[in-house]
Amino acid sequence: MFDTVAVVGATGAVGTIILDLLEKRNFPAKNFRLLASARSAGKQLQLAGKTITIEELTHDCFEGVDLVIASTPDDTAAEYLPSAVKAGAKVIDESGYWRMNPDVALVVPEINPEAALNAQGIIASPNCSTTQMVLAMKPLHDAGKIRRVIVSTYQATSGAGLQGNIDLQEGTRAALDGADYEYKAFAHPIAFNAIPQIGSHKEQGYTSEEMKMVYETRKILGDETIMVCPTCVRIPVSNCHSESILVETEKPISVDEAKALFAATPGITVVDDLDASSYPMPSNSTSSDEVYIGRIRKDLSNPNGLAFWCVSDNLRKGAATNAVQIAELLARGV
Amino acid sequence: MFDTVAVVGATGAVGTIILDLLEKRNFPAKNFRLLASARSAGKQLQLAGKTITIEELTHDCFEGVDLVIASTPDDTAAEYLPSAVKAGAKVIDESGYWRMNPDVALVVPEINPEAALNAQGIIASPNCSTTQMVLAMKPLHDAGKIRRVIVSTYQATSGAGLQGNIDLQEGTRAALDGADYEYKAFAHPIAFNAIPQIGSHKEQGYTSEEMKMVYETRKILGDETIMVCPTCVRIPVSNCHSESILVETEKPISVDEAKALFAATPGITVVDDLDASSYPMPSNSTSSDEVYIGRIRKDLSNPNGLAFWCVSDNLRKGAATNAVQIAELLARGV
């Protein structure tokens, strides 16, 4: 139970869903405060039956706040969240800025809740494409020890924020009408296209989004020996990231065993009947907190390999839901 | 040089492009005949400055034909093409029906031209997703011997024929307008979605499209030991298939070496400057006969691995262009 919970970035794509989840899941708090940039300050939002006026995010705004849930750009998180920690608040951060800091816990509650409970400073929520993948990896890693992951992503435009979806919608309409459209969130047209770059060039020809999947996976699973080869691609889907994943385990895992392991993992739902054309897709996975897994099959190229297809709502389990689940974990204290 | 060349399936998505290529590339033939189903018979088309009336495809229609280029559904190819062979014609087939028949040559002219030149019966053109992949594999296989390929595809709706693109266009318009649309070419909505099934369930949880990438690759490269693990996915792109490919070679290949090998291969164009956001995409690869390769980088999970991104026009090099190139090879005779 927290007295005062502050949501930073309350008007963003993820912030909006965080508010929705706090209300729907009856998050145990006496007061909520909403913080955002000066541009949004003064506006009012409804939360848990109350009208709340958005306050401007400043270094001094965290006085009396017990828990901060922040979803902001990296530079905002870098600048303001240390002030929240200094003011004595527990801080859950959605941004990418703090995740790999050795003093910061990087948490998926189903995987490493103890990291959140023991955290002294900021608790980071992973990158959306990492979260769904590590949740799928966890039961396989426990059962057969994952040595290697090869992943190709099919990522939604909502991962680029509200402007990403505006670009998809308006760009697509323009393309259908043969009109021009100037994209703001993407370097190339996303309508009827596939863009094999998310983030900037980070190292060795890999993008920042791809290297997140390498480093965050190791930190969350607590195993620096897991090798990851990622390819991150933006496709014209508005919401839900899809991932084609191949894992190699020390001990081979059969398809039946994998299905049973996935089905027994909280947060995972198996949808897998190819003969009935039944598998996860963005169209049947959106607005859900689950990670959906299908197309589970033996790797045809390696006896220790297992291939599957994984879809999840990147704004929910990939972002807002994971943050709220961390908050619930802190509120329970166990 | 051929006297009479017949194009079967002249009105289809691929057939239309075959006619265009024959004209633009000044294919050496005295006469062209156009064959199609009874529904299209009697219609007229322009080809090489002449008006040609479409004739109905029958078992007896191949009399006097020297070369047949056919792009039809599998069952049509199964029924009629043996009659063309019997009538003494050379036959190039785009369908999937004959490819894996041991008496049939499966040809990508840059890779195994001798198979076409030595063929006694039908010469098959590979599946579109296979063609661009094997062309990319060939120089790497020659240099370092490929042992294993892991590929995830991002396939365009034009691969499902004219109706595939109608579905994408009309389904997308309906989705933007909040209206209903009944898809004809796809089991699920393709607008703003990703469908991880192309073809039917073939074996071991893999689809027919995926197994084509396994078996056709081995046959074209003449190496039954190459292991392939494919995942084929339809995305809302109208034309050009994209592929996230990872190869493992016996002898490691560096990024610089791979770039040089790709650049020296006829039919391949390297587009690879991540810092300048330059890489192949459907939007910059359509209506070209090339296979475009970018995002070339070392596999982070295996010293013998190399990852890259490959895009090509599935109706051109993936279908029509490859068939016409085989025809040109037969006409040259070397």
From TrEMBL, chains A, B:
Q: Does the keyword NADP apply?
A: yes
Q: Where is the Semialdehyde dehydrogenase NAD-binding domain positioned along the sequence?
A: 4-119
Reactions catalysed, semicolon-separated, are: L-aspartate 4-semialdehyde + phosphate + NADP(+) = 4-phospho-L-aspartate + NADPH + H(+)
Binding of NADP(+) occurs at: T11, G12, A13, V14, R39, S40, S158, G159, N314
Q: What is its EC number?
A: 1.2.1.11
Q: Which residues cross the membrane?
A: none
Recorded hits in Gene3D superfamilies, A to Z, give: Dihydrodipicolinate Reductase, domain 2, NAD(P)-binding Rossmann-like Domain
Stretches assigned to coiled coil: none
Record's InterPro entries?
A: Asp_semialdehyde_DH, Asp_semialdehyde_DH_beta, NAD(P)-bd_dom_sf, Semialdehyde_DH_NAD-bd, Semialdhyde_DH_dimer_dom
Q: What positions constitute the catalytic site?
A: C128 (acyl-thioester intermediate), H241 (proton acceptor)
Q: Which domain of life is it from?
A: Bacteria
Q: Which HAMAP family match?
A: ASADH
Function description = Catalyzes the NADPH-dependent formation of L-aspartate-semialdehyde (L-ASA) by the reductive dephosphorylation of L-aspartyl-4-phosphate.
* Protein name, UniProt field: Aspartate-semialdehyde dehydrogenase
